[in-house]
Amino acid sequence: MSRPSRRTVVPVLLVLTVVAGVGLFYFQPWKTFTDTTVDEALPGVSAPAANGGPSKKDTARMNDAQPPVKDTRPKDLSKGPFVSHEHDTSGIARTLRLADGSQVLRFEDLSSSEGPDVRVYLSTRDPDAAEAGLGDGAVALGELKGNLGNQNYPIPAGTDLSRFRSAVIWCERFSVSFGAAGLAPVKA
């Protein structure tokens, strides 16, 4: 039995090295073993004063001297739990209107998998139908910041949220949904 010649082995090794490099770049298998945790504060909510805030006496005095303060807390517009598609995904998605009139999509207690080129979308499809695709008119909100935790995604000005039925975590590279949350209107 003869050994393969150097003329055969070197090109084969070069091809295998290139294929392995492309495979590693494309599939990013190490993301199976990593997590990225994000813990962003609820937008538009300031932390209480370090001393516990004004006393009841101070508050009463301020109420007599000043007009009522406008409520600056974010207003819930819609919310719903995540359902899993290609990867186990859980948590809550909420759309909020901030005091300045802007809108934000917020993920709370998100738990999913990491992956290559994972993005956040608003979809016109129901969460279950989003598994098959985002549908016409989906709005991209950016890259997923982390696969665990609480995170906020600004919604472009002028976006009519009544058109959208779900928030979707979508892998662009493989065109699959990791999971989606229904966006049911919140009653005032």
Structural description of this entry:
This protein is α+β, with helices and mostly antiparallel strands. The protein has two helices and ten strands. A hairpin with a 5-residue loop joins strand 3 (90-97) and strand 4. The longest helix has 22 residues, at 6-27. The protein is elongated, with a radius of gyration of 24 Å. The mean pLDDT is 85.
List the helices and strands and how they pair.
Elements: H1 6-27, E1 37-39, H2 56-65, E2 75-84, E3 90-97, E4 103-111, E5 118-123, E6 139-143, E7 148-155, E8 166-171, E9 176-182, E10 184-185
Parallel strand pairs: 1-7
Antiparallel strand pairs: 2-3, 2-9, 2-10, 3-4, 4-7, 5-6, 5-8, 8-9
Short synopsis of the structure:
The chain is α+β, with helices and mostly antiparallel strands. It is 17% helix and 34% strand. The model has no long low-confidence stretch (mean pLDDT 85).
Structural key phrases:
188 residues, alpha+beta
